[in-house]
Design goal:
transferase (chains A, B); homodimer; alpha/beta; 10 helices; UDP-N-acetylmuramoyl-L-alanine:D-glutamate ligase; PfkB_dom (chains A, B)
């Protein structure tokens, strides 16, 4: 199975309003809820691709119960660890006039040292069956900032390939533990390296410890810098829609390609096709299958290897 | 005891953000939750004034559980009727720069005919012990639009005085059943009668069926048109703060004055003092006791009776 870790899982709530007017009162006509947090989104896409997938991390309170009830409706196996605090909510307010989204993200519950220990035990046990693990997203209060370095080392000790998708200090610390693959986006690359030139920044990120770097570049697709070479994959055209979750779908594409032992260009093509198909779907963790099938063989992959 | 009815009770969530920027992502640093809906707010203020208070209406789902857990921390007796759907959330986003609030209100669960019947049974039973009842707020989907007329007739049959605080068609229909007191605000008065002149509009509203009308006029206080005369009560000065819940506190003031058989000018003075004290408190259903005590005897009541 493939394991995904979401330390700050979320109950994702979406409100649609005809128009968002600051300092006014809005009657919401359409409310939807989904199990959320980056690793949970990755798990849902992996499961939809037919991979046996287990999601761990923390869940607690009434919002945690709601998250777990929604996760039970998917093909993802729930291995979330109970926590005393309440799982955070994220509220996305979609403006029906402009199509833009205003996002309000709660911080998440504080994790106690005992809860953290319980999680580590669960994580190590799950690694015994995992063919790959994705470590995804921001950290809840109370979790040590070097957590992804620790989780990466535990996975490498167990011989399980690690994909790291986070930002800021947790990314910087996690890279030092030498994950197999890091997936920053362009903003995260720039924040980490100070360079806004993606190829230069991805190479720099690789020197900081990741064995490979696959950087998502929004509508421009994805750039990979690996021991085997460098490639850029781009969709054949631009897709209008909601980009939320596109990066999580790219992670699912990369991770499924890794366990299926696809060559790098095919992994990137899958990741980019899934990203674009997610932009065409209403919500993170979901993708438009027709778009995915259409694009899988139409993504253009360019070799950027120094020898190419 | 005093009974309050909240057919569309809510879990009130407040987010504080440094500044609300549409179409951006906000990390919320401060989250608070309260039991909400107008009748629940009224009940909390009545209980804080020392009145034995029972809150009924509907509650369901994880959000209903959260609402009931928060209500259990107050002195209000919970007589909410279970419903299959989930209690609505309201999200108030407070902009730390301007102090203004952007409000997002979910519609609430659809109430089935069987749930509605169960509620009516509970309501009739509670009326047997009630000294007064407040019917408050908007209607959830599935509840007949003439509901407040039915609930008013049942209370009058049981000899229990009724205060009606709602708007639009439910107000229009409810007035025809001759409640003892209606408490519209200036906007609701204007929408009902077409007149923006409060005294004229309140008199018109009384002709539509209410035995008395007490109209809340925001910072200008409150205007009452009754069989015994007409009065306007105004706070001695303007109060800066959050007006959310000020109208609910006014209802609690009027209702407690009714069961204590206070003369009308004293009821209005109490309602206006409580309103102003709520503006000075952080949340609906709460009031600043020092402001209340200071203002009780400083509210200026003017006689507007035709004979005066």
């Amino acid at each position: 199975m493939i394991l995904t870790v979401t330390l700050n899982a979320a109950l994702d709530i979406t409100y649609r309003v005809p128009r968002l007017r600051p300092h006014r009162t809005h009657r919401i006509t359409e409310v939807s809820e989904r199990p959320g947090g980056k690793g949970v989104n990755v798990a849902r896409v992996l499961a939809a691709l037919g991979h046996r997938t287990v999601a761990t991390g923390f869940a607690g309170g009434g919002t945690g119960d709601a998250l777990r009830a929604l996760l039970a409706e998917t093909a993802v196996t729930d291995a979330l660890v109970p926590v005393g605090g309440a799982t955070r909510r994220t509220v996305a307010v979609v403006d029906g006039t402009t199509g833009d989204t205003t996002q309000l993200n709660e911080p998440g519950p504080t994790v106690s040292p005992a809860e953290w220990d319980t999680f580590l035990g669960t994580y190590r046990e799950l690694l015994g069956e995992a063919r790959a693990v994705a470590l995804c997203g921001s950290l809840p209060p109370g979790v040590p900032v070097d957590v992804y370095a620790r989780l990466t080392r535990a996975a490498r000790t167990a011989g399980v390939p690690v994909l790291l998708d986070t930002s800021g200090e947790p990314l910087r610390r996690g890279l030092a533990a030498r994950p197999d693959l890091a997936k920053p986006n362009a903003d995260e690359l720039a924040a980490l390296t100070g360079s806004t030139e993606p190829l230069r920044a991805a190479r720099d990120t690789r020197r900081r410890g990741a064995h490979a770097v696959a950087a998502s570049l929004g509508p421009d697709g994805m750039l990979a810098v690996t021991a085997d070479g460098s490639w850029q994959a781009a969709p054949p055209r631009r897709f209008a829609g909601n980009p939320t979750g596109a990066g999580d779908s790219a992670v699912a594409g990369l991770l499924s390609g890794l366990v299926e032992d696809l060559p790098w260009p095919a992994r990137l093509a899958r990741a980019v096709a899934l990203s674009a198909a997610t932009v065409r779907a209403p919500a993170a963790g979901e993708f438009d299958r027709a778009t995915y099938e259409e694009l899988r063989e139409r993504v253009v992959v360019t070799d950027h290897s120094p020898a190419a």
